[in-house]
Amino acid sequence: VLATRAGNVAEDNARKQLAETELKERADEWAKEVSKGGRILAYEKRGPEKDKTVALIKSPGLQAWDNWTVPMSMREVEPGVRLIMNTSHITDDHDWKPRPATKDED
């Protein structure tokens, strides 16, 4: 679903394939962690068994970001941008309609 949506939004099949590849890589990494056994997999290391816990995501900090670094708040994402989306090429069914632009919007 995510890869298909990426391809539809970008209107580019290469983007869909890139999303599929990256999602598979991440799923494979988590599967590798699961196969090690004897540990608890969780989003974060905390709680009484944090010594046995392996965090599946990382909070941003001073270290370099990697595939598992995730902003902890919507305030930490990029500033708002004006999104213009051509919905005429999206073939999947959806129950929403874009809101019409008001007169002061381009």
Helix content: 25-40%
| Main sheet overview | 2 strands, parallel
Uncertain residue segments: none
The assigned structural class equals mainly alpha
Number of strands: 2
Strand content: 5-15%
> Which sequence of SSEs, written as H and E, runs from N to C?
HHEE
Q: Averaging pLDDT over every residue, what do you get? A: 82
Number of helical runs? 2
Radius of gyration (Å): 19 Å
Outline type: elongated
Q: Give the termini separation.
A: 31 Å
Q: Provide the spatial order of strands within the biggest beta sheet.
A: 1-2
Please describe the structure with a list of short key phrases separated by commas or semicolons.
2 helices; single chain; two-stranded parallel ribbon; 2 strands; about 110 residues
Layout of secondary structure:
Blueprint: H1 2-10, H2 13-36, E1 40-42, E2 53-55
Task: Walk me through this protein's architecture.
With 106 residues, the protein is mostly helical. Among the domains are: 1-35; 38-71, no CATH class. 31% of the residues lie in helices and 6% in strands. The chain contains two helices and two strands; from the N terminus they run ααββ. It has helices at residues 2-10, 13-36, and strands at 40-42, 53-55. The protein has a two-stranded parallel ribbon with strand order 1-2. α1 runs antiparallel to α2. The longest helix has 24 residues, at 13-36. The two termini are 31 Å apart. The model has no long low-confidence stretch (mean pLDDT 82).
